[in-house]
């Protein structure tokens, strides 16, 4: 029988996927300006990446959580880059997105380096 922690993790993962799909769909449908819609989807996607990262407390298989985090992060960055380069080119927004990517990669590198140096993490 599955442990309560695994069941809770599975339920949390399903809830996050359903909520994120609804938020992405409704954002795309409700926002008339498609550049703004993709930026909003990107920001929500990064938020869901953070929520997925916090699911480490519930889900014991790290691969599942890592897949969620990287998938949402990739969707977020890709949709923001798409909105700023393809839908309507804006140098300022592109610089802001690239700055966000740079800062987030620095935090990811910092977190991975602390995890590899601490055996209890």
If you had to describe this structure to a student in words, what would you say it looks like?
The chain is 83% helix and 0% strand. It has 121 residues and is an all-alpha fold. The chain is flat and about 50 Å long. The mean pLDDT is 85.
Order of helices and strands: HHHH
Shape: flat
- Share of β-strand residues: under 5%
Q: Tell me the Rg in angstroms.
A: 16 Å
Arithmetic mean pLDDT: 85
Task: Catalogue the unreliable spans.
Answer: none
- Secondary structure: number of strands: 0
| CA-CA gap between termini | 27 Å
Total DSSP helices:
4
How would you classify the helix and strand content by structural class?
A: mainly alpha
Taken together, the total number of domains comes to 1
For the report, how would you describe the main beta sheet?
none
Helix coverage percent of residues?
Answer: over 70%
Record keyword descriptors for this entry:
mainly alpha, flat, 121 residues, single chain, 83% helix, 0% strand
